[in-house]
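User: Predict the complex.
Assistant: Input components as received:
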Amino acid sequence: MIRLPLVLFLSAALFSTGVYGVLARRNAVLVLMSIELMLNAVNLNLVAFGQALHDITGQVFALFVITVAAAEVGIGLAIVILIYRNRETINVDEVNLLKW
Amino acid sequence: MTGAEIAFIIVGVAAVVGAFRVVTARNVVRAALYLVVTLSAVAGVYLLLAAEFVAWVQILIYVGAIVILFLFGLMLTKAPIGREALDNQRRGVAFLVAFAILGGLVYLIQGAFDWDAPRIDPIEGSVASVGTSLFSRFVLPFEVISLLLLAALIGAIVLSRKEDRP
């Protein structure tokens, strides 16, 4: 038996930590880790609201988000390794091929 | 304050501290290991919310697979150590933005949800109902997401393969 706002506060804290990581980190792998933190915050909200409203849909959508996160990390790391092979760096501020 | 809430606060503090260390650690491998702490704590929160299937999926997929994938990514790329190598120069702006988002969310949540509202009364036996729901009402999204996973698998192989062709 947990109060709903407590879970929402934890989720807000995790999400803003992830935002800080995405904005402040240079290393692309660490940026991906921060995105995982934000996705976890979203999952926490989905599960908490699903349990509060007595609806199983929240948990099913949390499972979908976990699957999409797995696919995203796989593709993201493949791209990071490809960039490292071509440019010898994975710092996101030094990869400016598409910038004019 | 119930026992579940005290357990929740302990696990939640562990999650936030782990998350904070993920975004501030100066060693990338340590950041990945602190990510394990955060993800396991979130799985503990799922258990406290009686969502045991999501909790075990979280342990299996996130802690078991995704963190290992991150460690492989760190192993295959150069992983420098130190704050200047890992963080950019706009840390202050990033902190301000993140703090503004946190403040806005906390303000909205405490305005929108009544603190004296009844506590969450979780659904019992969630594994059976998750399975039933997944394979009856959400069977089309389930198939679409399996197609997405296949596409991601093939895409990752194509992207990371060395090109030997002329």
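Chain A has one domain: 4-87.
Let me know if you want any component modeled separately.
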